[in-house]
Amino acid sequence: MSSRSDRSAVPAGSPEPDGHGVPTPRAMLLVVVVLGIQALALVGSAVSFIITAIGAGQLATSLIGLAIMFLIFAAGVGAAARGAWRLHRWARPAAIAFELLVIVFAFSVIGGSLWLGLACLVTAIAVLMGFFLPPVVDAYNRALTD
Known about the structure:
Layout: H1 4-9, H2 28-53, H3 60-85, H4 91-109, H5 114-131, H6 134-145
Helix pairs in contact: 2-3, 2-5, 3-4, 4-5
């Protein structure tokens, strides 16, 4: 499967991530882009917590703690996006677990902030659906057997 003709027969994706010889399908781009957007949103939220903490008095410690937590989540989501692009076996369950948390969050805020809840819900569903697109599932299956 690692001959040059087999590689050129695959029409899409990145060439041979991390040596397992399976190109990343273009369909994975949906997952990676949405995970990247989510990571950036987490970083933006962390920055807003830090800015708010400057004049928050006693709440500053809690806001800094939230900022640190959001930065840790952002690093994890960014790593999952990179791992998903490289078809690492750990990236898919990590990203799916995060998206399940995002869905729970979406339903908890949808009554107070409809647009935030819908944005979270739509992005989470996009990532989950992206991981189960046939080309993505096939690429992961081939990467796991190599």
